[in-house]
Amino acid sequence: MICMKKIIVLGILFIFCPLVMLAQQKENHISEKEWDTLIELLKTEKWDKVEKVSKEYLKRFEKASDTLADPAIVRYMYLRCVGAELGEKKITKEQSLKKVSNLIGKTIITPPRQFREKCVFNCLKLTDDNQNLSSCGSNNDNTIIQTFETYIMADPTVIKNISQLENKDLRLGGYIKSINAEGFTMPRLEVIFDDAFIWEEE
Q1: Looking at the predicted structure, is the pLDDT value of residue 6 above 90?
Q2: What is the pTM of this model?
Q3: Pick from 97, 158, 101: which is nearest to 126 by CA?
Q4: CA 80, CA 101: separation in Å to the nearest integer?
Q5: What's the confidence (pLDDT) of residue 11?
Q6: Residue range 117-140: average pLDDT?
Q7: Which H, E and C letters describe the chain, residue by residue?
């Protein structure tokens, strides 16, 4: 009788555990369709909707490991969204910082951006001291600055030979070290990322 009970319990676990794992995978996952929705909103610069969707996606990962790629990508999208709202003066500097303060210390992954030795908007270049990378994020028309970004490299030697990086599409990962809101005529977020690393987008 005891043996039969064990068999029944094991049978229930065999059926139930995969269902739990499947539910957890679904909860901690962003589908291709959902990515398409968010990317289209970003392309069309519908910032209020980008903010809403990004926050909904990030709620799925509140208890998940900080090493997961999906929330790291969405965090960067959300950060740029808030920078855009600030740049368009839809929110104040104080409001923008309140929206993003909880991102400090979190991981991010950027979309691919081209490295160019001489560039202005939405690309990667060396900082003035040639030790790290920087980027100035703007809207599609390059008329509104959203973010000034500095990437402190975990290994500065990877960007020593810039001829090997020129015109390549690179992605960056790292931790958000600090976020400040600066500027009056052209308000924007100034973000420093630490322990940054790069890889080429295939």
Answers
A1: no
A2: 0.84
A3: 158
A4: 14
A5: 44
A6: 94
A7: CHHHHHHHHHHHHHHHHHHHHHHHHHHCCCCHHHHHHHHHHHHCCCHHHHHHHHHHHHHCCCCCCCCCHHHHHHHHHHHHHHHHHHHCCCCCHHHHHHHHHHHCCCEEECCCEEECCCCCCCCEEECCCCCCEEEEEECCCCCCEEEEEEEEECCHHHHCCHHHCCCCEEEEEEEEEEEEEECCCCCEEEEEEEEEEEEECC
CA angle 138, 61, 54 (to 5 degrees): 30
pLDDT of residue 5: 41
| Cβ proximity of 150 and 191 under 8 Å | yes
Q: Are 82 and 98 in contact (CB under 8 A)?
A: no
Q: What is the mean pLDDT of residues 116-129?
A: 93
pLDDT of residue 12: 37
